[in-house]
Amino acid sequence: MFTSLRRATALATLLAAAVGAGARAEEESAIRFEAAYTADLLSNLHGGVETGTRYLDDLELGLELEGERAFGWKGATFFISGLYNNGKGFAEDLVGAGLEVSNIEADVRAARLFEAWAEQRFLDDRASILVGLYELSSEFDAVETAELFLNGAFEMSTTFLESGLNGPSVFPYTALTLRAAARLTDSVTLRAAVLDGVPGDPDHPKRTAVKLRDGDGALLVGEAEYAGDGFRAAVGYWRYTARFEEIGAGIDSRGNDGLYALAEAEVYADPDDPRRGLALFARAGWASARFNEFRHSFALGGVYTGALPARPEDKLGLAVGMAEASGPLRRLEALKRREIAIELTYRAEITEYLAIQPDLQYVINPGLVPGRDDAFVAGLRLELSWGAGL
User: Fold this and answer.
1) pTM, entire model
2) Judging by DSSP bridges, how do beta strands 244-245 and 354-364 pair with one another?
3) What are the C-alpha distances in Å from 272 to residues 72, 145, 306, 312, 358?
4) Whether residue 8 has pLDDT greater than 90
5) What's the gap between Cα 327 and its chain centre?
């Protein structure tokens, strides 16, 4: 824990020095560097597997190059990022939850290459193709309003997040991807992606691995989005081409697929200050019960910006997420039907570069294990971030 605290202090000192030197990003810069350090101090106060406290952290460094400004390549963008995590467990070790209590929790302590992609835009930026290591949730099954929350139930549909051999291409493992997108109108966008079916290397989780192995297959994803007038909605479909073992059947077959739908809207804006207001979101997911731990998932919540008169940038959020176990898994392991996470959180913008976020979570039926008490978690998130044009 003290090593991580020293790392946070060192990064804060570095960021403060850079800011003091006036090293701010400029829009005309061809290269942009970004650094972000996120730390969670979480305590399971009651229920779950056992009470206790963990310190989780995530350090991410990224570099983006704009092709036209750098060397006259119109419409091209190149991006590379890496991350480090301390590998401490919390959701499984203490809470016993199937849903991640913190969205920066990683299985092992490791430094990894996270994203490395090139994107080419054309048709006046109305269409693009991207190739490389890519975080799927940056565009697919993404809800901006839900990004405030720590629990993984709000990161993307739980049915999708928990699918496949090693999950889809999301934190902390990404996969080689080909993604195409087209904006058909000012409001309607279509996206499609083909990804390696197994991100990273499950046998060597500390490695940065890009392996197209026999049997991995591909993950195919398509999404249609509508956005306009403070409202956004999307529907998507995903499917793995590889064969998977059917739960409790002892046979391998194809057909591991699922659907998701989401919506978010700005439902109230303060007439005297446009920074203040209320936004709501909802998301639902479905996955094939033959292959997946969760068959249905739902999440909904709201975020109010500027709840305190003197703090117009702060955000107050309340959300509920639910994941329902598939019937074959419940019968095989005698599990409960649903795990539910309720989260109340407040993000305070201390400076442009520093935010703190106290957080409370109540997890009902953690891990779906009969006889396990509901868990109550209290935590505090620290975020340090900085960006500069080079």
Assistant:
1) 0.90
2) unpaired
3) 44, 22, 12, 11, 28
4) no
5) 27
